[in-house]
Amino acid sequence: MRDEFEPAEPPILQSGLPYAPPERLPGMAPLDPADWILVDDAFAAQMALREQLIAGRRDRVIALQDEARPAAEELLDEVLAALRQRPDYAVAAGQVTRPDGACVPLDRGDPLATLGRLVQQDFCLLEKRGEEHVLTGAVLCFPANWTLAEKFGHPLIRIHVPVPEYDEGLARRVQRLFDGVQAGRPLWRANCLVYADPGLHVPMSETLTRAERHPREGAFLRSERQSLWRLPRSGAVAFGIHTFMIRRPA
After folding, report:
1. Model confidence pTM above 0.85
2. Tell me, what DSSP letter sits at residue 87?
């Protein structure tokens, strides 16, 4: 499902995945902090689409609670620190030059939009509220058949309402995972689903059935490299989503 920001041709595709083939996708595993931010062969095209979405669909792709602003600012600082270690980025006092040559002003008053223009990865901020982690902020340009508005401000178990496998037992395990991730020791996993349409910005309501959201047949594979990164000052967890879209092997 595309809109005017994502033309049908040509689709934005990567040439492959930087991890095991779909039939051997890894489960949750330690992540080398140096690999937190990825740059792949679809960087320029994905970033151009992200720029358009942030400029023209901001209310759909960015949300931030006032009390989550310190965590968002801290996340920007953490990403900038990671980019300073990369030879393909140039971080200066007031701007960052991306690998595609684009210069992004550092607007600390708008941390999530700035993040969305710096890297391919989407970010969801989850903060502990009572016994659960709640989605308090996000820059989500490439939703995979869900909408930020329906999930924003809700705890993990509510966020996963349309997922039948996400029962109370799984919810407890995921909550323990979020509680246990440590600063400086991030985690990652990946998923992979078949898609008929290679669109990246695919918001869909949770009221649709699983069959409507995920057809069984299609020519493309969409895979998310997901990461969990604990922010040391605020204690928030940054859930990162780097989206890959590739042609389905014959």
Report:
1. yes
2. T
Angle made by CA atoms 119, 123, 128, in degrees to the nearest 5: 150
For residue 113, pLDDT over 60 is answered with yes
Pairing of strands 193-195, 95-97: unpaired
How many other C-beta atoms are found inside a 10 Å radius of the C-beta of residue 14? 18
Question: Radius of gyration of the chain from Cα atoms?
Answer: 17
- Please compute, for residue 196, the number of CA atoms within 13 A of its CA located in the half-sphere on the CB side: 8
Q: What's the first-to-final CA gap in the chain, in angstroms?
A: 24
% residues pLDDT > 70 (the chain): 84
Q: Write the CB contacts of 45 (distance below 8 Å, at least 6 apart in sequence).
A: 12
Q: How far is CA 194 from CA 58, 197, 219, 234, in A?
A: 28, 9, 7, 37
Burial of 171 (0-12, 13-18, 19+ CB in 10 A): middle
